[in-house]
Design goal:
18% helix, alpha+beta, 106 residues
């Protein structure tokens, strides 16, 4: 068991943070960071906003948001609490499919 779920139990966090795809699609890495941390996700890694890390669900310990910035704007991935990749409509999609790559703000 990872530390994050243990911390969630210790602090009585019972619900997974809610993340809407509209909170991340078409947004900048700074805006996504604010939405992710505001919802209660935990930044993990040296710099999740620049693609060096991700945002983790404190209840499940699963990755929920992963940002891939690049010179053309890049993309972001959003996962449900079980760690499954989501498309813009909230449906579970193949992680390598185009639907799994939500656009970042240019």
């Amino acid at each position: 068991m990872t530390v994050l779920p243990l911390l969630a139990r210790r602090h009585r966090i019972r619900q997974n943070p809610r993340i809407n795809r509209s909170d991340v699609a078409g947004r900048s890495p700074d805006e996504i960071h604010d939405a992710a941390t505001g919802a209660g996700l935990i930044p993990k890694g040296p710099d999740p906003k620049s693609g060096k890390g991700s945002y983790i669900d404190p209840v499940t310990g699963k990755q929920r948001i992963l940002i891939h910035p690049d010179s053309t704007g890049g993309h972001v991935h959003v996962n449900n609490p079980a760690g499954e990749r989501l498309g813009i409509g909230g449906e579970v999609v193949d992680p390598e499919s185009p639907a799994a790559h939500l656009p970042l703000a240019p």
